[in-house]
Write a structure and sequence with these properties.
Blueprint (H helix, E strand, L loop, with lengths): L3 H24 L5 H28 L3 H5 L9 H29 L1
Helix pairs in contact: 1-2, 2-4
Keywords: Membrane, Transmembrane, Transmembrane helix
Length: 107
C-alpha cells in the first residue's frame, strides 16, 4: 500500500477525475454533479487516510528497514489527505448553499 505508484497514483487519478467532473459541472446544468465531486473528494481523503494508517502501522512495528526503502519522504503522504479534506469541505459548503437556495426559491 505504501508503493509510491499506488500511494500517489490513486490520488492523482482521483484529482484528474475531479477536474474533469468540475469542468463538466461548469458546462452543464445537471444538479447532482456537485455530489459526484463530493464523493470523489471524500474517497481521496479516505484512501489517503488508509495509506497513512499503513505507514503508522509500519512505524509502530519498528520496521526501519522497510521505511528506508520507501523511496520518498513519508510526510508527503499528508498532501493528498489535506487536499481531499479541503475539496470535501468546499463541496459540502457548496451543497449547503444550494439546498438553502432551493428552499428560498420554493418559499
Amino acid at each position: 500500500m505504501l508503493n509510491p505508484y499506488f500511494a500517489f497514483g490513486v490520488p492523482i487519478f482521483l484529482l484528474f477525475l475531479y477536474i474533469v467532473f468540475a469542468f463538466i459541472r461548469k458546462k452543464s446544468t445537471v444538479h447532482y454533479i456537485g455530489f459526484v465531486l463530493l464523493l470523489i473528494a471524500t474517497f481521496m481523503m479516505a484512501f489517503s487516510f488508509q495509506v497513512l494508517q499503513g505507514l503508522w502501522t509500519l512505524e509502530e512495528s519498528h520496521a526501519t528497514a522497510q521505511l528506508g526503502k520507501l523511496g520518498y519522504a513519508p510526510e508527503i503522504l499528508w498532501i493528498p489527505l489535506i487536499l481531499g479534506a479541503v475539496l470535501a469541505i468546499l463541496n459540502l459548503w457548496r451543497g449547503v448553499k444550494r439546498v438553502k437556495s432551493f428552499r428560498e426559491e420554493s418559499n
